[in-house]
Amino acid sequence: MEVKSLVSEHDKIIEVFITRHSQKIYNFIFSKVLDKDITEDIFQDTFIKVVKTLKKGHYSEEGKFLSWVMRIAHNLVIDHFRQNQKKRIFRYFEDFNLISGIEDASLDAEKYLIKQQTETRVKKLIKELPPDQQDVIIMRIYRDMTFKEISEEMGVNINTSLGRMRYALTNLRKIAKRNNISI
User: Which residues form the RNA polymerase sigma factor 70 region 4 type domain (predicted)?
Assistant: First the structure.
């Protein structure tokens, strides 16, 4: 009887947590994968993993539960991209949140506008690069891929990937300077 009440109490805590933080976790995952179906799959896998780990008694980070769950979601996103890196190169990113790593729940109107303007400027700058340089920037910085992974996905050697990144950064600086944008 005591075990049953403990499990049901445990389930209630998980339910409260999911209700309280599900939107934040879902938005985090979506900002990385930009696909509703994939987001829902990873979101579900995240909570399955959380529940299994808790039921096995393997959770040990006291007081940092949300951070722990976000780390699980982050790792599952990385796993997704690793599994699918051969399937696509990310060229089109109209809805891609380039500054998704910046999370400040207390953004006031001014900070929000500045963030939006920065995102727009960065997107505009990247769009002016040649497609191969756009791909390298997106894969390295926004998909967090290694140069080895990039070279494999693009079908070039690693030095070519490194060179494209160097040219992309150099060209971004030139484009920004030409448009009077400081980066």
Answer: 122-160
pLDDT at 42: 92
Q: Is the dihedral of CA 42, 46, 52, 58 positive or negative?
A: positive
Which element (helix H / strand E) includes 7?
helix 2-33
What is the rounded distance in angstroms from the CA atom of residue 102 to the CA atom of residue 105? Answer: 10
The C-alpha atoms of residue 114 and residue 13 are separated, in whole angstroms, by: 38
Q: Which domains does the chain have, with CATH numbers?
A: 2-84 (1.10.1740.10), 109-178 (1.10.10.10)
Residue that has been written with the tokens 């790792």 in this structure? 75
- The predicted pLDDT at position 47 comes to 86
Which tokens in the block code for residue 168? 């992309």
Confidence of residue 63 (pLDDT cuts 50, 70, 90): low
The predicted model gives 104-120 an average pLDDT of: 67
Integer Cα distance of 134 and 66 in angstroms: 34
Compute φ and ψ for 130, nearest 5 degrees. -60, 150
User: In 3D, which of 43, 119, 103, 51 has the Cα closest to residue 76?
Assistant: 43
> Please, which residues have CB within 8 angstroms of residue 139's CB and are 6 or more apart in sequence?
89, 90, 145, 149, 150, 153
pLDDT at 10: 60
This prediction has a pTM of 0.44
Residue 4 has pLDDT above 50, yes or no: no
